[in-house]
Amino acid sequence: MIRQKIEQELEQLRSQDADPRSTFPDRWLNDRGLLLDDGAFEVAKAAHLAFFTKGNNYPTVVKFERDLIQMALSLFHAGKDATGAVTSGGSESLFLATAAALANAKERRPDIARSEIIIPQTGYPTFEKYERYFGYTIRRVPVDANFRANVSAMSEAVSKNTVMMLASMPSWSHGVCDPVRELAEIASKHGIWLHVDACVGGFLAPFVRELGRDIPDFDFRVPGVSSISADFHKYGYSGKGVSGVFYRNKVARHQPFIFDTWAAGLYRSPVLTGTRNGGAIASAWAVMRYLGLDGYLSRTAQILKLRDAILAFVERCPGLKIVGGAELNVVGIGSDYSDIYSIASKLKDYGWKINLLKEPEAIQLVLGPLRDEYITLLVNDLENAMEAVRREGFRAPSPAVVYSDEFLD
What we know:
The protein is α/β, with parallel strands linked by helices and 409 residues long. 40% of the residues lie in helices and 15% in strands. Strands 1-7-6-5-4-2-3 form a 7-stranded mixed β-sheet, sandwiched between helices. Strands 10-11-13-12 form a 4-stranded antiparallel β-sheet. It has a two-stranded antiparallel sheet with strand order 8-9. Helix 7 (180-190) links the parallel strand 4 (162-168) and strand 5. Helix 2 (40-50) packs antiparallel against helix 9, helix 3 (59-75) runs parallel beside helix 9 and helix 9 (278-315) crosses helix 11. The chain starts with a helix and ends in a 17-residue tail after the last helix.
């Protein structure tokens, strides 16, 4: 095919999602005019294209990675011995943190036959995904009535084989911030690695606190926090896929892979993946420098404005309720009286692409810095959807609730 034909086909496919509301799942960086227009998209795109052909071993990209690590460590109040790595996504960050925790336990407690990892029921499913590779045992612990990690239940679950605990900041499903400080006390008491999964909120929570909102402590200021993961490609607003894993000290010294017994010479890899996209890393570096403190505060204020508008709507609507905490950026909307999936179906008819929760049945909104007119539109469409379901007696077919629907052979 000639270039012009390919470009025409790409534009035709792209135009199928012409409604800005259809980009709502891409709430971190898009070009549809849905988000606050502060130039970040153009900066990200230009940086990505400038290093489109480069890999992570290109000297300038190496500099970008080092700068990103230092920016994140500073944001998370790390000490002078802290270290970190840039990864391809949150799943890889969690993989590396788990590998570090297991290696650390093996050195300190070689008598453990099979390591155990304790996570709240709301913890990310990556830990089951990697269980087959690492050969540990997962113990999922029931959460409390607000979907928050139950401190006493987590403490009771600790055994002589426990090597790692997880806290979420916030949990993906319900938007709840786990009690990191309390869990860190348990981890410290038993000599357990505590990882804070801040992939969703890590680059948002510090700015929410800066704006005067109450946010629980979660970073390296909390004694007992061993590692933190946070996604640059979420609320760092870079292109996909750039995440990071950060350590209190150099205990993860075994993470880099080094091999020199082969014909091509020394092979070094700091993370799990080999070649990574230099363009994505460049976009993260450029956007963080471009937005700076003022830019991140501006975007965070817009997210909080949207969150507050949704919470105010739910409060004035009999039959609706907030599911979980809605403490940062994830808002779950459920109902004791209406069919919430039917309301979700109406919202989709209006053009919004949204998520669903299975337990409990709810609409899940992961918020981005929507422009004022789209905040108004979303709230109005929520109200119209609820009224339409009530007026028409509409009931949607039971949907398949799917978080990740990737193609599998």
